[in-house]
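Ops channel
N.P.: pipeline sanity check, posting one input/output pair.
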């Protein structure tokens, strides 16, 4: 289906910066590659002429040159082809390397520019496939086409011109015969773009599924669900292979149709040439033989060009897909969040619904004073995580007020709240690098400050034993769960954000380690901390400045541990059941 013109123009505009990555600083290289390709084609055409001269020399026709002259010219041509080919060996791959490197760098940089909240709502599989398999298809389709297409065009024009120069009637016959493969391939070519896009979509689904299954590996094993999981894998794998098979079939149909039609055309021209030669119309044996070769040279582009064009179109479709995913949505405006918290955080009649009509939080009113430490407790589904996400600015569209020092969270620029808050998640992001790099995330931190954060987060013993340059391993596998949480704490200390939020950060740890890590958080000074916790440990609970108890999205009770226990209400029953 053809798109409307404005839509196509918009698409071109959107893909432009991606296409520019191929050419940034590479224009001389592109020009050189083009020149090389054109030179090779020209040399090939000239060699055909040299061959014709040789054959007619042997046949005793009216040759203009001696054997020695023709041999010398052909030798020279061959030598220059060797030289140019050697140059192309050096230059071609270099162009691909630079162009694709820049393209992928650019795409990744755009990904990193996405807002945290926008990214959280997307599937990472889109980007995984865009930067791997799709990128390979883009290289093949777009970049290859850039050099191959002009080469093929010159080959066609050159061989066609030589043919005309040799004999008009033979050329007319050849043109009539060549119309067939051209029409056939052009018709089939349009289908390929659709097939390529379908394959990319399947690949993306496959990656998403694979990521999920591998992430849940231990759960799958512990439930003995290997067989069921294999079924899921096999189905998705089958779908990818089917999509690939369809793409390959379309590709092979295009090339088969072209080559059969090409062979028929070549045979036809041979017959016509012999017929003309027998009638002594000036067509010599040499011309007939070279004509078949030239015809082959002219037909090759006719077969290749539609394929190249279809590959190019398919590549552009993939670039468009990536560009659409990375298109920056109009960000809600606002002022930058403050970098310090002086009074505190206030909730006034705060309500939030994921789906209209069913509030996840209802009419919350409370104050978190700056520098103090609060716990949020409550049953599963009571709205603890929702409240924490609202505090990070991750959920918009709340009603009532959520105020940092009197300023609405919804009035802040997206992501700017991360200047004020650090969030500690249950799963800590760790990469395969040294402990130091994992702590600092590559920012320059004075050694004394780093040592202080390490001590405060309770990593002193680990650093004393293994040093800051110990390798964390892939995903931090060389560290224990408790150590990983402590890395997260140390990081937020290094960022020196005045507010620290944690959503069941220690839930995956054993009771003793969980207590130690939570104690490290309780001991921090000068930081406003709001910790969602499901472990009702008396020694810890006694240390909080306030405990908020949520029940079905409402604030059931709040106060210090002693006050809540004395009240003998909902918290009291939660606590006594837990003991
Ligand atoms: P808790 O953290 O206390 O277990 P949550 O804040 O995660 O509770 O959930 C509160 C309520 O909101 C639950 O009823 C839950 O089903 C619902 N909820 C949570 N996240 C979403 C979401 N992304 N979309 C729709 N409903 C959600
Ligand atoms: Mg939760």
């Amino acid at each position: 289906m053809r798109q409307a013109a404005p839509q196509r123009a918009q698409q071109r505009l959107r893909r432009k910066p991606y296409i520019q990555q191929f050419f940034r600083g590479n224009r001389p290289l592109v020009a050189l590659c083009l020149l090389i390709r054109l030179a090779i084609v020209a040399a090939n055409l000239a060699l055909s002429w040299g061959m014709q001269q040789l054959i007619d020399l042997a046949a005793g026709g009216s040759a203009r040159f001696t054997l020695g002259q023709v041999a010398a010219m052909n030798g020279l041509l061959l030598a220059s082809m060797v030289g140019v080919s050697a140059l192309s060996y050096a230059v071609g791959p270099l162009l691909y390397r630079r162009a694709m490197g820049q393209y992928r760098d650019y795409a990744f940089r755009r990904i990193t520019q996405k807002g945290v909240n926008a990214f959280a709502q997307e599937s990472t599989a889109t980007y995984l496939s865009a930067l791997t398999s799709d990128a390979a298809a883009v290289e093949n389709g777009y970049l290859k086409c850039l050099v191959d297409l002009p080469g093929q065009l010159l080959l066609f024009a050159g061989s066609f011109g030589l043919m005309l120069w040799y004999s008009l009637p033979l050329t007319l016959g050849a043109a009539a015969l060549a119309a067939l493969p051209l029409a056939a391939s052009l018709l089939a070519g349009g289908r390929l773009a659709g097939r390529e896009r379908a394959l990319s979509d399947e690949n993306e689904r496959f990656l998403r599924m694979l990521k999920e299954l591998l992430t849940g590996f231990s759960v799958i094993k512990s439930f003995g669900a290997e067989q069921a999981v294999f079924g899921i894998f096999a189905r998705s794998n089958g779908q990818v292979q089917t999509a690939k098979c369809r793409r390959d079939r379309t590709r092979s149909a295009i090339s088969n149709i072209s080559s059969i039609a090409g062979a028929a055309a070549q045979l036809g021209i041979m017959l016509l040439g012999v017929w003309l030669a027998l009638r002594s119309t000036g067509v010599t044996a040499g011309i007939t033989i070279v004509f078949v070769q030239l015809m082959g040279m002219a037909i090759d582009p006719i077969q290749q060009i539609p394929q190249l064009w279809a590959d190019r179109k398919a590549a552009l479709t993939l670039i468009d897909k990536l560009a659409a995913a990375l298109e920056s949505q109009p960000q809600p405006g606002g002022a930058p969040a403050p970098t310090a918290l002086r009074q505190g955080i206030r909730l006034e009649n705060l309500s939030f619904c994921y789906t209209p009509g069913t509030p996840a939080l209802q009419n919350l009113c409370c104050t978190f004073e700056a520098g103090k430490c609060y716990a949020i407790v409550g049953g599963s589904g009571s709205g603890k995580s929702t409240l924490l996400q609202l505090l990070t600015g991750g959920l918009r569209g709340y009603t009532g007020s959520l105020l940092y020092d009197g300023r609405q969270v919804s009035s802040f620029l997206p992501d700017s709240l991360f200047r004020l808050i650090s969030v500690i998640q249950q799963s800590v992001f760790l990469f395969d690098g040294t402990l130091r790099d994992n702590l600092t995330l590559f920012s320059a931190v004075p050694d004394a400050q780093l040592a202080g954060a390490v001590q405060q987060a309770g990593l002193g013993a680990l650093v004393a034993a293994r040093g800051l340059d110990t390798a964390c391993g892939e995903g931090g596998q060389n560290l224990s769960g408790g150590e990983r949480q402590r890395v997260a704490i140390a990081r937020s200390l290094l960022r020196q954000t005045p507010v620290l939020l944690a959503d069941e950060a220690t839930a995956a740890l054993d009771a003793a380690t969980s207590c130690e890590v939570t104690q490290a958080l309780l001991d921090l000074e000068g930081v406003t901390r709001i910790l969602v916790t499901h472990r009702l440990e008396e020694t810890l609970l006694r240390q909080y400045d306030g405990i908020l108890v949520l029940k079905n999205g409402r604030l059931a009770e709040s106060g210090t541990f002693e006050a809540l226990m004395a009240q003998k209400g909902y918290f009291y029953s939660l606590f006594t059941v837990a003991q």
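N.P.: looks fine end to end. The chain has two domains: 5-326, 344-578.
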